[in-house]
Amino acid sequence: MLTDFPRLLDLDRRAVTLSVDLIAPVTAADLTRPTPCTGWDLADLIAHMTAQHRGFAAAAAGRGADPQPWQPVPVADPITAYRQAAADVQAAFATAEDTAFTIPEFGPRTFPARMALSFHLVDYVVHAWDVAAARGVPFEPAPELIPAALPIALAVPDDDRRLSPQAPFRPAVSVTATATPLEKLLATLGRDPAWPGPAK
């Protein structure tokens, strides 16, 4: 796992910027599109991504145990709200190298800033793909993002905890031996890299 905090900050910034760029063109009509996240349309996904940014920003300030920032809330303009939350979390991370992060979905334990930032990095690489897949547009991450995120994802335990409705990732799915690093990353975290499959 990456341990260089400035490097992690840069990679996370690239992942978050990618997600902002993919969400920026979303229209009101797009918000009802299905996503690779079971049961969520694009509005639900963006609300979740916004809440996670707010929660991680609170955790960077030592307030991660407060459940309120982690909860999605209705907003009049979800695209602007997402952009603001993305900017806020980046600012919060920049001064949080020595902070112990509390992340409620992982229980009461705390995590070193580097580990928490690596979680956020993986989450937003994959969620950026979710948005691209939902919109039906190409997913074109910076070349270094997938190689950085894959070993972090492979270190996430794939056990019964992933069956919980509150689990951040679903059980891993199988891929072929010729799968690309992106396909391996998605499958490791429970995504079908071929979503939504061939047109019917």
What is the percentage of strand-forming residues? under 5%
Number of DSSP strand runs: 2
Low-pLDDT windows of residues = none
**In total, how many domains does the architecture comprise?**
1
**What is the end-to-end distance?**
41 Å
Which architecture name does CATH use?
Up-down Bundle
Main sheet properties: 2 strands, antiparallel
Q: Numbering strands along the chain, what is their spatial order in the largest sheet?
A: 1-2
Protein name: TIGR03086 family metal-binding protein
Pfam families: MDMPI_N (PF11716)
Organism: Actinoplanes sichuanensis
InterPro entries: CHP03086, DinB/YfiT-like, Maleyloyr_isom, MDMPI_metal-binding
Give your account of this protein's structure.
This protein has 200 residues and is mainly alpha-helical. The chain has one domain: Four Helix Bundle (Hemerythrin (Met), subunit A) (Up-down Bundle). It is built from six helices and two strands; from the N terminus they run H-H-H-E-E-H-H-H. A two-stranded antiparallel sheet has the order 1-2. The longest helix has 23 residues, at 113-135. The model has no long low-confidence stretch (mean pLDDT 92).
